[in-house]
Design brief:
73% helix, 84 residues, mainly alpha
């Protein structure tokens, strides 16, 4: 968080006209993450969280579920930030 704040202040200091662009891009990524979360929750309602318990042994379903979640997040964030 400290490094991000320092980099943001460096952008403001070096090129203040780019500050609104940086805020716009950060808000796009944040909105995309929220949308991806709700897409994931709506697609996998039943027991998706219970199967990812860190104390349970990992099985093929858990691995596939983690991969599916990652792909949903990547696709949503890239789609929204690239404007598709």
């Amino acid at each position: 968080m400290v490094i991000a704040t320092l980099l943001l202040s460096a952008v403001v200091h070096v090129s203040p006209q780019q500050f609104p662009v940086v805020l716009y891009k950060l808000s796009m990524v944040t909105v995309a993450a929220v949308v991806a979360y709700w897409i994931d929750r709506s697609l996998f309602r039943d027991g998706a969280q219970a199967r990812l318990d860190p104390y349970m042994t990992r099985d093929l379903y858990s691995a596939a579920r983690i991969l599916a979640r990652a792909l949903i997040y990547v696709g949503t964030v890239l789609g929204i930030t690239l404007g598709l």
